[in-house]
Amino acid sequence: MNREDVPAWILSLDKESIEFIRKFIINSGSLKNISKIYNVSYPTVRAKLDTLIKKIELNSKTEDVEFVNMIKNFVIDERMSLDTAKLIIDKYKNERNDE
């Protein structure tokens, strides 16, 4: 399989997320087992999985460009507010339309 054949949503994930997915699969999707492996509570693992799901869904949308996905990931990772992200994305899209 060539790098070009790998879906964009997989390429967008960091090593930690890929490792989480690997452990999740090996443990047959048991969040209880994953919480023991990471030595964290079940709700913490559930929150991690929910964040990962959002990232995968976000990066599965082919109509968004890489820059917009990066900004959306900042919101998911709580590194940027949703309002700020919307302003940046709107400005970006407006400038692209002006070209």
Q: Enumerate how many helices there are, as a single number.
A: 6
Element order: H for helix, E for strand: HHHHHH
- Approximately what portion of the residues adopt beta-strand conformation? under 5%
Mean pLDDT: 85
Distance between the termini: 36 Å
General form: flat
* Strand element count: 0
Based on CA atoms alone, the radius of gyration comes out at: 16 Å
Secondary-structure-derived class: mainly alpha
What composes the largest sheet?
none
Low-confidence stretches: none
Instruction: Give the fraction of residues assigned to helices.
Output: over 70%
List the helices and strands and how they pair.
Elements (H helix, E strand, L loop, with lengths): L7 H4 L3 H12 L4 H8 L3 H19 L5 H11 L5 H17 L1
Helix pairs in contact: 3-4, 4-5, 5-6
